[in-house]
UniProtKB/TrEMBL annotation:
Transmembrane segments: none annotated. Pfam families: vATP-synt_AC39 (PF01992). PANTHER family: VACUOLAR ATP SYNTHASE SUBUNIT AC39. GO terms for cellular component: proton-transporting V-type ATPase, V0 domain. It comes from the Eukaryota. This is Uncharacterized protein.
Length: 64
């Protein structure tokens, strides 16, 4: 498996776990961090999509 796929899969899990943690804290932390984490996840998904064009990644690998 490509190291970039592993790295991005781990980072996705980190973002999801940290988002859940911040949302359970609520208050100012949740109000501030959740939109920032949403933006970071969207930004990374966009960059990964752009960088995967022209590669040999399968549809299943891209979904990770």
């Amino acid at each position: 498996m490509n190291i970039e796929i592993i790295r991005n899969t781990l980072y996705k899990a980190y973002l999801e776990a940290f988002y859940k943690f911040c949302s359970t804290l609520g208050g100012t932390t949740g109000d501030t961090m959740c939109p920032i984490l949403e933006f970071e996840a969207d930004r990374r998904a966009f960059i990964i999509t752009i960088n995967s064009f022209g590669t040999e990644l399968s549809k299943e690998d891209r979904a990770k």
